[in-house]
Amino acid sequence: MRHCVFIAGTGTDVGKTVLTRALARALSRRGLRVAAVKPVESGIARRPGEACATDAAALRAAAGTDVSDDDVCAYLLDDPVSPHLAASRQGIRIKASRIEALIERAEAAGDLVLAEASGGLLVPLSDELLYADLIAKTGLPLVVVAPNALGAINATLLTLEAARSRGIDVLGVVLNGSPKADLGNAEAIARFGRVRLLGLFPTVAPVDDDHLADAAEAHLNLDVIAAYARSKPGAAR
Does any domain span residue 235? Predict the structure, then answer.
């Protein structure tokens, strides 16, 4: 399994979906065939007889792919709680093999898959499986998203330690948001975390994918991810 990048946060509501949308549209505009997936989504809305995966639908639209929810999300869970608990309440056990199969199907159709994780690395998917363990099992690299706010240094360094202790390759860190004052986050994370900063993503109203892509082009080092995708034989160049 290659040419998929996981996007994980230092916690919940740090901007992973917005960033994944921005990357999907920006890299698509560079000529790459991009698929964006969210293997596990909890807190979904339901209409009579139909699940509505909000994040998965947004990722699909940003990537411009005409696929079903089943091709974007392996597990649609009702309750807005940790995936392991939401799954348990529905009598479901989340399995790594099903998520790996989702990613492999997406990889077969394009140059790059962006896989948005659920919250942070140590979020449990089942009683036996943390999200970090799943990522380590796949051997795929990681982009870490952290809010550009007070506390980001500690949360990001802890996330990097959790990743590296499991042998996960970290492509870089994105700081999300526009603080009123310089908090020193970027310099400290790069120095103490010995990690590449992919950029400072500004506060952007997440209503238009092209607007998000413009911000990604202006503020992020997209070349790192694009080069990873283009190393695949037969990928767009």
Answer: no
Is 236 part of a structural domain of the chain? no
Q: What residues contact 142, with CB distance under 8 A and at least 6 apart?
A: 5, 6, 7, 8, 135, 163, 168, 169, 170, 171
The whole-chain average pLDDT of the chain stands at: 91
The pairing of strands 45-47 and 50-52 is antiparallel
pLDDT at 121 over 50: yes
- Give the residue numbers marked as catalytic: 38
pLDDT of residue 237: 42
Interatomic CA distance for residues 141 and 157, integer angstroms: 17
C-alpha–C-alpha distance, residues 16 and 40, integer Å: 13
CATH number of residue 82's parent domain: 3.40.50.300
Total domain count for the chain? 1
Which tokens go with 34? 């991009």
